[in-house]
Amino acid sequence: MTLTLDHITKTFGETTAVRDLSLEIPEGEIFGMLGANGAGKTTTFRMIIGLLEATEGEVYWNGGRMTYAGSGMIGYLPEERGLYPKLTVRDQLVYLGRLRGMKKADIVKQLEGWLARFQVPDYMDQKVEELSKGNQQKIQFISAVIHQPKLLILDEPFSGLDPVNVELLKQAVLDVKKMGTSIVFSSHRMEHVEELCEHVCILQHGQPIVHGSLKEIKRSYGRKNLRIHAD
Ligand code: ATP
């Protein structure tokens, strides 16, 4: 199940957020999308999941056009966090899992597994608003993977997290990859993609300035030029 972006462009009035972006993301790979603020990463992700329609070009998934209806196979962790603060972790996940057609028992089983993996097994009945930012991010991550998606889109998953939580989430991303899920994630920081990704794309002002395997890019451009900027 390859994800293909075929010459996609998105304009908002006078602003071109993404310009003529073509990419192929092979099945089962972790793909990194790098770029500074406003480079067009979130807009690209919204086109992939079908939340925004491309002004030009198409997104293909598994050979067919990506539609919003087909996006049930996708997990999405948005940049602006979207949890329900007054719900308990269990209620939050049961609600989201049910929306994706899961049975309650399966949701709870998956959730228990993830909470144990994240070393917070007793968070089941905590209200989301009572959790630290790092722990809310873990719950947001679980929300994106609870239905075992074939494609996982993570918009700045490590942003604002302390190093311990960054490591826990990185390990979780690798665990999801082992299940055969294709993963695309964005970051401002080269060191995040270096450890996780085989291929990367660097966006600047809505245009792909570089894309290819990390090895090729490092050889051609040198590590120094690959620094985007710090968070
Ligand atoms: P960040 O790291 O800050 O999230 P980004 O790389 O995700 O940045 P986008 O959010 O995709 O970048 O924004 C790309 C450009 O498109 C920016 O100039 C932004 O202001 C503009 N843009 C994004 N969404 C809209 C919108 N709905 N209406 C108008 N302009 C928009």
Automatic annotation (TrEMBL):
<keyword id="KW-0813">Transport</keyword>
<dbReference type="GO" id="GO:0016887">
    <property type="term" value="F:ATP hydrolysis activity"/>
</dbReference>
<dbReference type="GO" id="GO:0005524">
    <property type="term" value="F:ATP binding"/>
</dbReference>
<keyword id="KW-0547">Nucleotide-binding</keyword>
<comment type="similarity">
    <text>Belongs to the ABC transporter superfamily.</text>
</comment>
<keyword id="KW-0067">ATP-binding</keyword>
<feature type="domain" description="ABC transporter">
    <location>
        <begin position="3"/>
        <end position="230"/>
    </location>
</feature>
<protein>
    <submittedName>
        <fullName>ABC-2 type transport system ATP-binding protein</fullName>
    </submittedName>
</protein>
